[in-house]
Amino acid sequence: MSSQPWQTLPDRMALLRRRNLLAAALRAFFTARGYTEVETPYAVPAPGEEVHLRARPTGGEWLNTSPEFAMKKLLAGGSGPIFQLARVWRDEPWSDMHAPEFTMLEWYDLHADMGALMRETFALLQATLPPEVSCRGITTRLDEPEYLTVGEAFERYVGADVLATEGDAAALAAQANARLREGEDWEDLFFRLMLERVEPRLGRGRVTFLTHWPAAQAALARRCPEDARVAERFELYVCGIELANAFVELTDATEQRARFIEDRARRHAIYGPDWALDEGFLAAVEALPSCAGIALGFDRLVMLATNARRIADVLWLPGV
């Protein structure tokens, strides 16, 4: 008979106590910087608009996949800088690095650019983690981070010009010396190459900020004023683990609506109809102040702090 999650609790208590200390340290970090902690609903009318977003229905609404829409409504209402440790749900299978229900740390600062948000994110790591962390056999020092654009990463690790080939799957495949799979479009191939060739090289030895994503992956980020081919978005990697995703936020509601409509059409073609467009969120985007925000996987941060091998080891009751 397999053991129940509560039966493994004595073996995990040291990790879970470290989890609590880490949550307290995060709250102290943001409070000292003038942020206000907020709470937003877990059941929402629209959980997001990503093409491959897998959300869980509940009582006519959907379980939150991110507090982003709700927190931006607060920003539009005048909340000022805010943060939240939120429970979120992604209807994806368990793995060593993912739980279908997990905790996300999300925060937004006013008038911050991408550089300022990266510096604050690195300061958060240094304030809450030891100078060197190890996880799943990889060690990373928290001294001098690496800043790498997506274009530079693809040139270095894939041998392809990702911006010049954007939208042309055959051209990207040819440059990458990759076989294009049946039905695979440029975005599919982009993410396959990211997962297979780029991400395994990041966050090893030192922290990596992967910046300036192709405009097709802008999501809720604004395009870079200096180069419209890319968006002001970055992801953070530590010990080879994708830890966070960040945007300088788009404040143009017309452009955001157009992106949503395009993504919704693609999602519905693949998975069928789902939720209505969140008009309240689009109204908030129209009133959104200049800001930058980031979502960080808190459970993965605990893994880094404790050298845990599985995300289940740092959850109080995994799989229940």
What labels describe this entry?
320 residues, BirA Bifunctional Protein, domain 2, 13 strands, 26% strand
Question: How many runs of DSSP E, i.e. beta strands?
Answer: 13
SSE order = HEEEEHEEHEEHHHEEEEHHEH
Distance between the termini: 17 Å
User: What's the CATH C level?
Assistant: Alpha Beta
Strand residues, percent = 25-35%
The CATH topology, please?
A: BirA Bifunctional Protein, domain 2
Radius of gyration (CA) equals 20 Å
Content-based structural category:
alpha+beta
Largest sheet report:
10 strands, mixed
The rough form would be described as globular
Number of domains: 1
Average pLDDT across residues?
95
In short:
It is built from nine helices and 13 strands. It has helices at residues 9-32, 68-76, 114-128, 150-157, 169-176, 186-198, 253-271, 279-287, 298-306, and strands at 36-37, 43-44, 57-58, 61-63, 82-89, 101-110, 132-135, 138-149, 205-214, 223-224, 227-238, 241-248, 291-297.
